[in-house]
Design brief:
Largest sheet: 7 strands, antiparallel
Strand content: 15-25%
CATH topology of one domain: Uridine Diphospho-n-acetylenolpyruvylglucosamine Reductase, domain 3
Distance between the termini: 25 Å
Radius of gyration: 23 Å
Bound molecules: flavin-adenine dinucleotide, (2R)-2-hydroxypentanedioic acid, zinc ion
CATH class of one domain: Alpha Beta
Low-confidence stretches: none
Length: about 475
C-alpha cells in the first residue's frame, strides 16, 4: 500500500531476501511469520490510522534470539520495528514501509517476584493485565494501570513511558522501573536488570530507554517495584458545574484525602454524550458539564470511608460538586472506572479521531478545549476533553465523519502553538511515534533535540531501530 500522506521517504535499508528468511527460520523455527494474512494485523495500528507493508513478523521467545536477530539485521542493514501489544496511539508501533516486525508477544514469562520487597522481574512481552492478576494473588499491584491493560505489554509500557491512571499516586516509570535488559542495535545484550531501590553507580542508563519508543534498543526484560495491594479501595464519580469548581475540588481533595488519594481523573459532558450514544453506558449521576473520578486506596477501610465522607460533605457544602455516587464494591468500582477508561473506545465509534495528549498548567487545561471549539466552529463533529487532570494531562480529541485534511489544517499548528505558549508538552504520555515527531520543537529546544540525535547515532549508527519514529525529519 502507498505510504500515508506526509510520510517520510523510505530510507535505503536492504529488502528482506530468501536468504534472510532462511536465517530467521533457523533461529525462530515456526515463529518466522510470512503469511500475509497473519502479518496484516501487525501492520495496522490500534486506531487503524496507519498501515505498513512489512512482509515479515518475527516472534522470539528469548533474549538470546532477539540478540541474534538484531545483530543479523544490523549487519544486513535491515530495519526493525519492535512491537508489543500494538496499542500505541502515535503510529510508533507499526512499520512505515517494510520494516521487519519484531514482536515480543511470546516473551511472556515472569522471571521472579520478591514478596518482601515487591520487586517483579519479567520478560518484556508480559501483558499488563496478566501481571496485575499475578500480583493481586500475592497481595501486590502493578504501579501503573491503563485502559489498554488487556493488550499492552510491560515492554511497550516502558518503551512509551506510559503514564495512566495511577501515576498521581505511584509516580512515573522513571521511578518505578528499577532495571532493564535491552538488546542494542549491534545485538549486544545490555544487562541493567538490577533490582535495587538505590544504585548511584555512574549514569543511570536504563532511563534512556524508558520512553525511547523502540528507537534505541529492544527492551527484553523489566524489573519493577510494585506497591502492596490496598486493603480498601473507593471510587467516587462526581459532577461539577464549572472547571474552576473542579480544580477547587482537586485542591480540597488533596488536602482532605492526603495519602489515600490514588487517582483524580476527569471527563466533560461531550465525553459523556459519546459514552451514552456509542457504548450505551448510562450516566451514573445527573447531567453536569464536568465529571470527576476520584479513587482512594488505603490500608484501613474505616479510616478511608471516614476521610472520604468528610471530603464529600465539605465538597457538597461548599457547592464544589453538584451530584455524586460512591462505590466500594468491586463491580460498581469497575462500572464507574469504565466511564473514564472507555472514552477512547467511544471516540473510535464517533468517526475519524484526531488525538492530542497535552501537558499544561492545571488552570489552563480546559481553556484549550474551549478555545479549540471556538476556533473550529462547526467544522468538527465532536471536540472532547478528558484525562489525568491530577497530573496536568489533557486528552483533547476531535472527531470528524471521515478523514478531513482541511480540519487537520485548522487544528494544527493551532493546538501546538497554544500549548507552547503555556510551556506545555505536546506529548504528555503517548510519545511522538510517527505522528508527532516533527512537532518536538514546540516542547524541546533544538539543542536538546540535537543531543537526542547524537545519542541515537551513537547507539544505532545505521538507524535500523524503528526508523522514521520519535526524532524529527531534520535529525538523521
Ligand atoms: P506498542 O503499541 O506495541 O508499541 C509502542 C511503542 O513502543 C512503539 O514505538 C514500539 O516500537 C515500542 N516498543 C514496544 N515494545 C517494545 C520493546 N520491548 N522494546 C522497545 N520498544 C518497544 N498510554 C498512557 O500513557 N496512558 C494511558 O492511560 C493510556 N491509555 C490507553 C488506552 C487505550 C484504550 C489505548 C488503545 C492506548 C492507551 N495508551 C495509554 C497508549 C499507550 O502508549 C499504550 O497503551 C502502551 O503503553 C503501549 O504498549 P504496547 O505494548 O501496546 O506497545
Ligand atoms: C487515556 O488516558 C489514554 O484514556 C488514551 O491515554 C487517551 O485516547 C486518548 O486520547
Ligand atoms: Zn491517558
Amino acid at each position: 500500500s502507498p505510504p500515508a500522506a506526509g510520510a517520510p521517504e523510505r530510507l535505503p535499508f536492504s529488502r528482506v531476501t530468501e536468504e534472510d528468511l532462511a536465517f530467521f527460520r533457523k533461529i525462530l523455527p515456526g515463529r518466522t511469520i510470512t503469511d500475509p494474512d497473519l502479518v496484516e494485523s501487525s501492520n495496522v495500528d490500534w486506531l487503524k490510522s496507519m498501515k505498513g507493508s512489512s512482509e515479515v513478523l518475527l516472534r522470539p521467545q528469548k533474549t538470546e534470539e532477539v540478540s541474534q536477530i538484531i545483530r543479523y539485521c544490523n549487519s544486513r542493514n535491515l530495519a526493525v520495528n519492535p512491537q508489543g501489544g500494538n496499542t500505541g496511539l502515535v503510529g510508533g508501533s507499526v512499520p512505515v514501509y517494510d520494516e521487519i516486525i519484531l514482536s515480543t508477544s511470546l516473551m511472556n514469562n515472569i522471571l521472579s517476584f520478591d514478596s518482601i520487597s515487591g520487586i517483579l522481574t519479567c520478560q518484556a512481552g508480559c501483558v499488563l493485565e496478566n501481571l496485575s492478576l499475578y500480583l493481586e494473588e500475592r497481595d501486590y499491584i502493578m504501579p501503573l494501570d491503563l485502559g489498554a491493560k488487556g493488550s499492552c505489554q510491560i515492554g511497550g509500557n516502558v518503551a512509551t513511558n506510559a503514564g495512566g491512571l495511577r501515576l498521581l499516586r505511584y509516580g512515573s516509570l522513571h521511578g518505578t522501573v528499577l532495571g532493564l535488559e535491552v538488546v542494542l542495535a549491534d545485538g549486544q545484550v545490555l544487562d541493567c536488570l538490577a533490582s535495587l531501590r538505590k544504585d548511584n553507580t555512574g549514569y543511570d542508563l536504563k532511563q534512556l530507554f524508558i520512553g525511547s519508543e523502540g528507537t534505541l534498543g529492544v527492551i527484553t526484560a523489566v524489573s519493577i517495584l510494585c506497591p502492596r495491594k490496598p486493603k480498601s479501595v473507593n471510587v467516587v464519580f462526581l459532577g461539577c458545574e464549572t472547571y474552576e469548581q473542579l480544580l477547587k475540588a482537586f485542591q480540597l481533595c488533596r488536602g482532605m484525602l492526603g495519602e489515600i488519594l490514588s487517582a483524580f481523573e476527569f471527563l466533560d459532558s461531550e465525553c459523556m454524550r459519546l459514552l451514552n450514544t456509542h457504548l450505551k453506558l448510562p450516566n451514573p449521576i445527573s447531567d453536569c458539564p464536568f465529571y470527576i473520578v476520584i479513587e482512594t486506596s488505603g490500608s484501613d477501610p474505616k479510616h478511608d470511608a471516614e476521610k472520604l465522607h468528610n471530603f464529600l460533605e465539605e465538597a457538597m457544602a461548599s457547592s464544589l460538586v453538584s451530584d455524586g455516587t460512591v462505590a466500594t464494591e468491586e463491580s460498581k468500582i469497575k462500572a464507574l472506572w469504565s466511564m473514564r477508561e472507555r472514552v477512547t473506545e467511544a471516540l473510535t465509534h464517533d468517526g475519524f479521531t484526531y488525538k492530542y495528549d497535552i501537558s499544561l498548567p492545571l488552570e489552563q487545561i480546559y481553556q484549550l478545549v474551549i478555545d479549540m471549539r471556538q476556533h473550529l466552529g462547526g467544522r468538527a463533529k465532536s471536540v472532547v476533553g478528558y484525562g489525568h487532570v491530577g497530573d496536568g494531562n489533557l486528552h483533547l480529541n476531535i472527531t470528524s465523519s471521515t478523514k478531513d485534511p482541511a480540519l487537520l489544517a485548522a487544528i494544527e499548528p493551532f493546538v501546538y502553538e497554544w500549548t507552547a505558549s503555556c510551556r506545555g508538552s505536546i506529548s504528555a504520555e503517548h510519545g511522538l511515534g510517527l505522528k508527532k515527531r516533527n512537532y518536538i520543537y514546540y516542547s524541546k529546544p533544538s539543542q536538546a533535540v540535537g543531543l537526542m540525535g547524537n545519542i541515537k547515532a551513537m547507539l544505532d549508527p545505521k538507524g535500523i531501530l524503528n526508523p522514521y519514529k520519535t526524532l524529527p525529519d531534520d535529525v538523521k
